[in-house]
Structures are given as structure tokens and as C-alpha cells.
Amino acid sequence: MIAPSTALLVAEKGIEGDRYRTQRNGPRQVTLIAAEDIAAIASFMKRDQVRPELLRRNLVTRGLNLNALKGEKIRIGIAVLEITGECAPCSQMETNLGPGGYNAVRGRGGLTARIATGGKIRIGDLIERVS
């Protein structure tokens, strides 16, 4: 996994270069997780920190209550995402974080989204609800 400073979101597909980019308009084209939830996961695992890439999510947000966005549309830069649901942890969390990793992430795994309008996004782009 890499942590680029920019990414190209392709409408109805996913993130350009992402190995999970889909060929159909599925509900899990992008995954988001809050930095605050990553800090909570680290605390549960009794670690100073957890590297975001260990959680296998695409985008990390800060200062935003992701759970309040379920079923909403958001804009990041010029891209528009439709929030489609919760991003449940997988068994890989036990491998990546160690014993208890799955349960540490449960309820804090972030959200999944479909890309309605594509575009290039950058670290630091404002995230806003679309009405």
C-alpha cells in the first residue's frame, strides 16, 4: 500500500491504480476512515499509533463525524461520493494488527462510498456535504 498526496477518482469505477477498482458501479469503490477512529483503534491495541495503511482504507478524514454521513453525498475537491454503508473489518485485521485487531476495528472501520462524479483529490481537500 502507498500513501500518495493525490488520487484520481473515476466515476462508477474506483480509484485509478487501486487493485480493487471495479468494472461495475458497486457500493464499495472508496473506503473512508476517521483519523480519530484510527487513534481509538491504536488505544484499544495498546499502541502509540496504528499506520492507516494497516487498516486497508483509501481515505483518512479528520474532524468529521463520518457516521453522520451515512446515506449522504459528499464532495471532496471536485469529486462527489455517495456514502453507501459501513466498512466492516475483515479477518486481515488480526494479521495486520495482531490478536484482537478485528474487534478493535469493529464499529470504527469507517464507511464505503460509490463515486458519482470523478476527479482528482488531494490531501487537505475540504470535505463537505452535498445537498
Key features of this structure:
131 residues, alpha+beta, six-stranded mixed sheet, 3 helices
Structural notes for this entry:
The protein has 131 residues and is of the alpha+beta class. Helix content is 16%, strand content 32%. The chain is built from 3 helices and 9 strands. The strands form 2 sheets. It has a 6-stranded mixed beta sheet. A 3-stranded antiparallel beta sheet has the order 2-1-8, with no helix packed on it. A hairpin with a 2-residue loop joins β5 (73-76) and β6 (79-86). The protein is globular and about 40 Å long. The termini are far apart.
> Which bin fits the share of residues in helices?
10-25%
Rounded to an integer, what's the Rg over CA atoms? 14 Å
CA-based shape: globular
Total count of strands: 9
First CA to last CA: what distance?
Answer: 33 Å
Secondary-structure blueprint:
Blueprint: E1 6-10, E2 14-15, E3 30-34, H1 35-44, E4 59-61, E5 73-76, E6 79-86, H2 92-97, H3 101-105, E7 111-117, E8 119-122, E9 127-130
Parallel strand pairs: 3-4
Antiparallel strand pairs: 1-2, 1-8, 3-7, 5-6, 5-9, 6-7
Would you summarize the structure shown here?
With 131 residues, the chain is α+β, with helices and mostly antiparallel strands. It is built from three helices and nine strands.
